[in-house]
Amino acid sequence: SPGENMAKNKEFVKFDNVDKSYDGKILVVKGLNLDIEEGEFVTMLGPSGSGKTTCLMMLAGFETPTHGEIYLDGKVISNIPPHKRGIGMVFQNYALFPHMTVYENLAFPLRVRKIPKDEADKKIDKALSMVSLHGFEARMPMQLSGGQQQRVAVARSLVFDPQVVLMDEPLGALDKNLRESMQYEIKHIHESIGVTVVYVTHDQTEALTMSNRIAVFNDGKVQQLSSPDELYEQPVNSFVAEFIGENNKFSGQVMDISGDKCKVKLDNGTEILANPITVKVKGEKTKVSLRPERAIIDPKDKMDNNHKGKIEEIIYHGDHTRLRVDLLGNKEFILKVPNSTARLDLKKGNEFNIGWNSVDCRALDPK
User: Fold this and answer.
1) What pLDDT, in 10s, does the model give residues 162-203?
2) What is the spatial distance between Cα 127 and Cα 105, in angstroms, rounded to a whole number?
């Protein structure tokens, strides 16, 4: 029945209260609970040392949880060796066999699984066409560019129809333009074959571009697990707000809360209106978060926050101009002005009214 199917899909990969320590003292992963649906593209995003790669390595079988269980398609996998887990892997350094041709690199995982040659040829053919590398079968890895080598690594991870593909910073070694085109390419492959992908990166733009959902890691824990737009628009704490995208912040104290607005007295004495996300009571300390593109310079419409700011720096970015403004005691307040709008007289030292709505101004934990 469809109900059964849904239940199965809901938790295709499941981390159930997983801890990991390498020395018996410090936990690099703490009480991790994470469910990944079948066919989903989930990115583990976080700074170095936040535990994301360790989670990937435990799922692959190269590391064992100190505590807790990992399930794949309803089965505990802790005792299953890596090569029997039905998991494809792509690493940053490609990990191709340098002495084997492209064809032999792709045939290797099929040979290990004892797939007959004629069936293997069909699978290799299909995998190479997925990454647009038909006709490259006889090349050696050293005869390929970095981007082509990475495509071969992706094809090799898919060739045996794995249940899950794990990717650890796979585009880290590529230049910016190639990296961006590979992001779309991997995203399109995922959409066309529907395999479950667990992807690790510290690059937030990459995570936002590619994922169905993103798990933001810090200090061995998932801080928030949400869709890219929700993560960006509705961060649940200061760490997520700071880590995803640019963010203006003010520190202050809650003076008053009613419904979906709260009054916050900033450190410089000014009061602003904000959206009480995690603050509950009057007197609480808070850090207020506001995205640069939500603040409007010289607003024509009425906004419930309006304050004078002085331009400290102007940087031209092609499609927008980035302004650093001295505003309410914050000399690092950033605005993004689209270059399609009528040109304002933007000069260093000029003062402008700067407005934003309280709904976009999130009052979060003070950390």
Assistant:
1) 999 999 999 988 888 899 999 999 999 999 999 999 999 999
2) 12
For tokens 């801890």, name the residue.
19
pLDDT digits (tens, 9 = 90+) for 12-44: 999 999 999 999 889 999 999 999 999 999 999
How far is residue 214's CA from residue 210's CA, in Å, rounded to a whole number? Answer: 9
Tokens 């792709």 -> residue: 106
* Side-chain half-sphere exposure of 63, counting CA atoms within 13 A: 20
Report residue 83 as tokens.
């090569």
Which SS3 state, helix, strand or coil, does residue 327 take?
A: strand
Residue spans of beta strands (DSSP E) within 39-115: 41-45, 67-72, 75-76, 87-91
The label of the residue with tokens 């450190």 reads 267
Q: DSSP per residue over 80-93, as a string?
A: S-GGGS-EEEEETT
DSSP 223-237: EEEE-HHHHHH--SS
**Is the whole-model pTM more than 0.70?**
yes
For residue 213, how many other CB atoms are within 10 A of its CB? 18
Tokens of 184: 């779309």
Structure tokens at 238: 């200061």
Helical axes 176-193 vs 117-130, angle rounded to 10°: 130
Q: Based on C-alpha coordinates, what's the Rg of the chain?
A: 25
